[in-house]
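Q: Convert this sequence to structure tokens.
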Amino acid sequence: MNARNIDPSQFDDIRPYRDDEVRAVLRRLVEDPEMSRVVAHFLLPGAASKLERPLAWMVRQLVRFEFRNAKNVRGVQEVIAKYLDKAVNRTSCGLSISGLDTLPRNRACLFVGNHRDIAMDPALAILSMYKEGHETSRIAIGDNLLSKQFATDIMKLNKCFVVKRSSGSRREKLMAATKLSKYIHHSIVNDNEHVWIAQRAGRAKDGLDRTNPALAAMFAMAKPKDQPFADFWRELHIVPLAISYEWDPCDRHKARELYIKEHKDEYQKQAHEDLGSIAKGVVGQKGHIHAAFGTPIEGDFNDVGALADEIDRQIIGSYVLHPTNMIAYEKIYGEAPALPVGYPPKPWNPEEHQEIREKFEQRMARIDERWRDKAILGYANPVVSRLAFEQ
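A:
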């Protein structure tokens, strides 16, 4: 790979925190009263309004105690991994992982993942790497998630770097995209650090995982003019990643947003709505979860459309279908196709999974009938995608 002489200080406004910054940031977090109040409401929503002060005090003491020995980013992530593992165990039937065992441990990868949940997608990618003994990745996050200083601190302590989406003029957007491209290339080629980025801006609220070709174009903004596209993309060691959830904690909220937009009403996000979606995704029940890491893209993909198609092919092909997907497909299209479900995969048998079928019916019945079909389609569309790519 072609490491380049580049001044890393140009990335100071978007990069994660360095090891030497960790202790000062942790002190700021402990002293931030808003952080302790928000965490208290997150952990005990019913009691926090009545017992805000004592609960906030307890949160500060807990944070101070848990991170007392964290001297660097790795130390922070060891604490986070412990709590994330507990959250996964509490809100799911388990996390299964495939594909990581075939990836080299001595070379950084650019993981391009499907995007269903704001925080859990990259968190589960990192947890998977951590569990399998790989170095964890830097994470691309939109600046819309950084509306609070404590949120910024927590994310940048966990290797998150900033994607500036709120830049004003066209020139500012171009400059921000160019810097982002250079930082991703610098992370992988110069720093030998993994990077995770979503295949498109915003979650796939309709259940259709598709890579925005503009993402591939952004990657190439750091490419020297005389270097072929295929050679440059091979330097990035791009690995598609498909994370699937049996149940989507935000299904009704995504369906409502789609309905409002379809009826030509402008969807107005509430203040800090994304942080609320993060909380729902973390604490909501998810059923079985699977993280499928693909194979490095090494072919001669000489245009952005071809590269995006290959990422889609791997994500859709490795996406683990769940009984909920097949049940939803049946409700919309009739008989479900003979596709494998679960991990390890098993043939779909519509006579089985009666308990899940009843739970699905009850869950959909609780969703407003105006956008109920949108929610059902969100579960069915991964099956639609698989059928389209296998034809």
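The longest strand covers residues 238-245.
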